[in-house]
Amino acid sequence: MDITPFLTSFWLIALAEFGDKTQLTVIALSAMYDRHKVFSGVVLAFALVTGLGVVVGDGLLRLVVPEYLRILAGLLFLAFGILILFSKMDSDTIESTRLASPFFSTFWMISVAELGDKTQLSAIALAAKYDSPVLVFGGAVLALVLISLLGIVAGHVCGFRGSVPCRVLRRCVVL
Fold first, then answer.
1. Which residue from 98, 104, 119, 136 is spatially nearest to 173, judged by alpha carbons?
2. CA within 20 to 30 Å of 155's CA: 35, 36, 49, 69, which one?
């Protein structure tokens, strides 16, 4: 069995997610909430959003010419980068999650952050490229979970409490 789709999705997603806004969100949430509940919310959110992306990508593989998919994926990456640059992200976004349970808050924030994110677009593109959705899904989710574990540990150990201004975080995410 060829594990190229698994390894490709693992490394591409891991590199894309490291330092991403989602990882910064995980760091902040793990400083506010129990790390086990944050981890559970993260895993479920990533599994659902990535699964959706893989299903879409696998369907696109069967419907659209691959060359057009590459062009579309590139345009979407650019569009989402521009949207992030000009989005309104402030401390109220994370603070408002205290109203719900830690698990639900984490699940909701990660799900919303990942919909249309570069890692979901990458999962779509990889599922469209390889005819192996299970391996793409496995590699992508494993990468997302491991990178999130790093964020959870960092947030828990360092006690990150919003000490970095939100405008700085937003600019770092765009880069």
1. 119
2. 49
Q: How far apart are the first and last CA of the chain?
A: 37
Domain residue spans of the chain: 4-174
The CA–CA distances, whole Å, from 139 to 12, 47, 129 equal 9, 11, 14
- Nearest-angstrom CA–CA distance, 152 and 27: 5
CB atoms near residue 136 (< 10 Å): 31
- Farthest-apart Cα atoms in the chain, separation: 48
Token reading at 169: 């975080």
**Where do the DSSP E strands lie in 25-149?**
none
Residue 40, burial from CB neighbour count under 10 angstroms (0-12, 13-18, 19+):
middle
Helices (H) and strands (E) in the chain, counts: 9, 0
Supply the pTM of this predicted model. Answer: 0.72
